Amino acid sequence: MGSDIKIKICGLTDPADIPAAILAGASYVGFVFFPKSPRHLELEAAAFMAASVPVGIMKVALTVDADDAMLDTLTGQVPLDMLQLHGSESPERVAGVKSRYGLPVMKAVGIADAGDLPQLETYGRVADQLLVDAKPPRGADRPGGNAVAFDWTLIAGRRWPVPWMLAGGLTPENVAQAVRLTGARQVDVSSGVESAPGVKDADMMRAFVEAAQSGAA
Ligand SMILES: O=C(O)c1ccccc1N[C@@H]1O[C@H](COP(=O)(O)O)[C@@H](O)[C@H]1O
């Protein structure tokens, strides 16, 4: 098996993060549109950053229970390749967003225990990709980006009908083990490559990609 793992680096906030993430080896870059997040971007800043992303690198917009008005504005102003729905969007809403915007949709599903796994089957029937993330801790003010991992053995050896990404508390130190254990061929990271909330670190991004590739080799 080769080390053809794909990496998404999410929550870029500085224009310099784009070349740093791509040089590190990211295949996807993510922009967060959620005001409570330290990674939240205004549309103008996101449009500026997205315009600098080379063709072939996926530009992903992360939203949380966004309505059509918000998504109309977002997709009208920012060039995007994928929408990541990270709230409690229903399967019907996922299907509606897909057809309204004509962009691939990745649905995040929070996992805490085995009881959460059937959601992956459900959303796997409507989304283009699944993001298998940790459930937020009790009292968290955002549904992701909390640097929390879940018990990876819950999904070891499991497969779904669409491509999926592993997320939640991944770091340069743990991603190789996470990849080996789950068999993930795509991983997503935000907090684990930051020197402070919302501040990406180029060395950490490089170390993360190298470690993910070593786990997939
Ligand atoms: O990053 C955020 O602030 C965020 C806000 C709201 C929803 C999701 C968010 N981040 C996503 O959560 C996962 C895991 O992040 P982490 O690596 O544990 O920090 C990832 O998909 C982020 O894109």
Automatic annotation (TrEMBL):
Gene Ontology BP terms: L-tryptophan biosynthetic process
Entry keyword set: Amino-acid biosynthesis, Aromatic amino acid biosynthesis, Isomerase, Tryptophan biosynthesis
Domain named N-(5'phosphoribosyl) anthranilate isomerase (PRAI): residues: 7-210
Pfam families: PRAI
E.C. code: 5.3.1.24
Pathway membership, UniProt: Amino-acid biosynthesis; L-tryptophan biosynthesis; L-tryptophan from chorismate: step 3/5
GO molecular function: phosphoribosylanthranilate isomerase activity
Catalyzed chemical reaction(s): N-(5-phospho-beta-D-ribosyl)anthranilate = 1-(2-carboxyphenylamino)-1-deoxy-D-ribulose 5-phosphate
Protein name (Swiss-Prot/TrEMBL): N-(5'-phosphoribosyl)anthranilate isomerase
Taxonomic source organism: Roseovarius pacificus
